[in-house]
């Protein structure tokens, strides 16, 4: 499930599924919107307060939150269901093409 895109695809073990869509805003454009900036500010204020309590108990503080698009599992499918998430990076086509040029070909990525 990709909540920011209001898109979902169900996965079935052993079955190939796919779909495509084109996001309308890059990750950086979303981070620049006032709505997202306000939400991030609020989240980080809460995290600062929680971090104070953690540090007082000798634990590590929480890291600052930064907006990212997410892919998350929304089916209760096992013990590690809550960990089943992945960051989605939305870039311009030019940024993607520049990144792609920096990548090794797959056959060369297997060689150290």
UniProtKB/TrEMBL annotation:
One cellular component (GO) term of this entry? membrane
Q: Which residues form the Cytochrome oxidase subunit II copper A binding domain?
A: 1-102
Q: Which domain of life is it from?
A: Bacteria
* Sample GO molecular function, one term: cytochrome-c oxidase activity
Q: What is this protein called?
A: Cytochrome c oxidase subunit II
Q: Which organism is it from?
A: Seonamhaeicola marinus
Source taxonomy lineage?
Answer: Bacteria, Pseudomonadati, Bacteroidota, Flavobacteriia, Flavobacteriales
């Amino acid at each position: 499930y990709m909540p920011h895109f209001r898109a979902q695809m169900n996965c079935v073990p052993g079955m190939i599924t796919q779909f495509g869509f084109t996001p309308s805003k890059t990750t950086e454009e979303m981070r620049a919107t006032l709505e997202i900036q306000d939400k991030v500010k609020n989240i980080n204020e809460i995290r600062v307060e929680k971090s104070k309590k953690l540090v007082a108990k000798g634990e590590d503080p929480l890291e600052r939150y930064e907006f990212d698009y997410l892919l998350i599992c929304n089916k209760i499918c096992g013990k590690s269901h809550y960990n089943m998430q992945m960051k989605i990076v939305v870039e311009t086509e030019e940024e993607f093409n520049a990144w792609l040029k920096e990548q090794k070909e797959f056959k060369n990525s297997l060689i150290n």
